[in-house]
Amino acid sequence: MSTQTELLLIYTGGTIGMVEDAETGALHPIDFSQLEKEIPELKKFDCNITVKSLIKPIDSSNMNIVVWQELLEILESNYDSFDGFVIMHGSDTMAYTASAISFLLENVNKPIIFTGSQLPIGKIRTDGKENLITSIEIAAAKENGKPIVPEVALYFEYSLYRANRTTKVSAENFEAFQSPNYPLLAEAGVHIKYNRFAIRKWENKKLIARKSIIDHVASIKIFPGLRRDVFLAIANLPNLQGLILETFGSGNVPSDTWFSEEITRLNERGIFVLNITQCTTGSVIQNKYETGVHLERAGVISGKDMTFEAAITKLMYLLSCEELTDADKRSYLDKNIRGEIS
Ligand code: ASP
């Protein structure tokens, strides 16, 4: 049996996989069977790299649950044959997909590293090569026969983040992502410095992939002057099962009576209402101010310090867990299940 580390590289689309046509300058996707031609450095790795691509690679703005299902299928069917995975993904929705996969794949104990780039891999100043090469190194890294990063993570511009803690913060800078409420898992300089205290511990468990995803979720971003009829246009959706309120500061909303009435009505309909702060850092603490206390009373669940990306994908995941009772789903929503809450 080969002792060589086996890695699977999955291309989903996005800028990272583009090259410029020498004559026209137009961007087109790399022929991934020829990846080593574009990145000769790949030959130098002491591991076998297999490359797969989605049937139809996409700009990540077109990401949806059907593509997540395809990705889950690839990961599940190849999980036992590989030591680690690198997923090349457009940066625009990478934090959503990375968060979604962290929930929809249960019991992950191998590195699944998402990466992308701001400039195509075929451009001279690309950030894609470094991002890809270091992601591969991280996905292959082992200690005492065990992976150093046995979890879903995102690598971008010298930083490795926990997937479900990330958010895209810049459309311009190479440093495009942040993990506002959780430390880096690793920093790449001359050496890759792993922050072991922040990385999940390896556990011997069997992978489960949740491929039937419920997406009857919505969000309402609160702003001064939000009208009741605007709120109701979303809250009254007949199939709605989960709603995120993007609130002010530590989880506050206007104290108008209509607001409490509508929230109580949502709760009576059995819709999970999750409170996420619009602030980048810090946490929802619903009983801090009177403007948050009435949410708690009306049955709103605190999303604590979850990112929006983690909250919406966790909601989809828990709604998809048919074996759980509503009380279980409600209690998991405000508890840490994959390192998404501090
Ligand atoms: N629009 C592209 C995408 O998300 C941008 C990128 O790859 O960075 O697919």
Please explain how this structure is put together.
The protein has 342 residues and is α/β, with parallel strands linked by helices. It has helices at residues 35-38, 65-78, 94-104, 128-140, 228-235, 257-268, 290-297, 308-320, 326-333, and strands spanning 5-11, 18-20, 27-29, 47-53, 84-88, 105-106, 112-115, 142-143, 146-147, 152-156, 159-162, 167-168, 177-178, 186-188, 192-194, 208-209, 217-221, 242-247, 272-277, 301-302. The strands form 6 sheets. It has an 8-stranded mixed sheet with strand order 4-1-5-7-10-11-14-15, sandwiched between helices. Strands 17-18-19-20 form a 4-stranded parallel sheet, sandwiched between helices. Strands 2-3 form a two-stranded antiparallel sheet. A hairpin with a 6-residue loop joins β2 and β3 (27-29). α3 packs parallel to α8 (308-320). The longest helix is centred in the first third of the chain and has 14 residues, at 65-78. The chain is globular. It starts with a strand and ends in a 9-residue tail after the last helix. The model has no long low-confidence stretch (mean pLDDT 93). The structure holds aspartic acid (ASP). Aspartic acid is lined by residues 13-15, 59-61, 90-92, 116, 118.
Short structural description:
The chain is of the alpha/beta class.
Number of domains: 2
- Main sheet specs: 8 strands, mixed
As a percent range, the share of strand residues is: 15-25%
Q: Could you say which small molecules are bound to this protein?
A: aspartic acid
CATH superfamily of the largest domain: L-asparaginase, N-terminal domain
Specify the structural class.
alpha/beta
Low-confidence stretches: none
- DSSP summary: helix tally: 9
Radius of gyration equals: 21 Å
Question: Total strand count, please?
Answer: 20
Q: Under CATH, the topology of the largest domain is which?
A: Rossmann fold
Helicity, as a percent range: 25-40%
Strand order of the largest sheet: 4-1-5-7-10-11-14-15
**CATH level-two architecture of the largest domain:** 3-Layer(aba) Sandwich
